[in-house]
Design a protein that fits this description.
Layout lengths: L1 H27 L8 E8 L3 E8 H13 L3 H9 L14 E9 L1 H12 L3 H8 L9 H8 L4 H9 L3 H5 L3 H12 L6 E8 L6 E7 L1
Antiparallel strand pairs: 1-2, 2-5, 3-4, 4-5
Length: 208
């Protein structure tokens, strides 16, 4: 009888601790800081575009380092690219991958057809002679009613519009043409939370 009563009390204690522990953790957790961030384009080259997201309080100092500190910009580029050459298997910088997406030819076609009607992409491609140029992409963008090639890419990749707009519009038009013509497979977008220095994130767009 005593054993049964002891077990009942022990079970009640365990359940009590289980119920109160989450509340205790929530009450004692430090509130997360809502830091205002700013996107800075480090570089836009043929195979990639690299944007870094830094706190607004640090953005001016970071931009100044990019412009004046010898070797800093190239070191940031090397870190973002994982110190490897451009390839589909390129290593990413150390940190936590928050998000990754791809823009394939099929994604572009689905977006165009969604706005301009079923078959609109194929009709546009036929008018362009099946092999398109960056100039042909202007008509493609109009079919989607997007403000620019960068904005359309942001919709497909589900990236932040601000970081996409910071890139070269020509780079994005060329990327669409390369994908549609089969010269590259896709554009890959990766967000990596940097684990070093002050809080910031790498936003990396790559032609693969």
């Amino acid at each position: 009888m005593k054993t049964k009563r002891f077990l009942s009390l022990l079970l009640a204690l365990v359940m009590s601790l289980a119920l109160t522990a989450p509340a205790f953790a929530a009450e004692n957790a430090e509130p997360s800081e809502n830091v205002s961030m700013e996107d800075i384009c480090i570089v836009a080259r043929e195979d990639y575009v690299i944007v870094v997201s830094v706190p607004k309080s640090e953005s001016e100092a970071y931009q100044k380092r990019l412009e004046t500190e010898p070797g800093f910009k190239e070191e940031e580029i090397r870190q973002a690219l994982g110190y490897t050459s451009s390839s589909a298997t390129r290593a990413l910088p150390p940190g936590i991958i928050d998000y990754q997406s791809y823009m394939y030819k099929g994604d572009i076609e689905r977006m165009v057809d969604a706005y301009a009607g079923s078959g609109a992409f194929q009709k546009w491609l036929e008018r362009a002679g099946w092999a398109v140029t960056a100039a042909d992409i202007l008509e493609l963008i109009k079919l989607t009613k997007a403000q620019s090639a960068a904005v359309l890419a942001a919709s497909i990749l589900l990236s932040t519009t601000s970081s996409a707009i910071n890139q070269s519009e020509i780079w994005w038009r060329e990327s669409y043409a390369l994908i549609i013509n089969g010269e590259i497979l896709a554009v890959r977008y990766t967000v990596v939370q940097n684990i070093t220095e002050y809080p910031k994130a790498w936003l990396i767009y790559e032609r693969i």
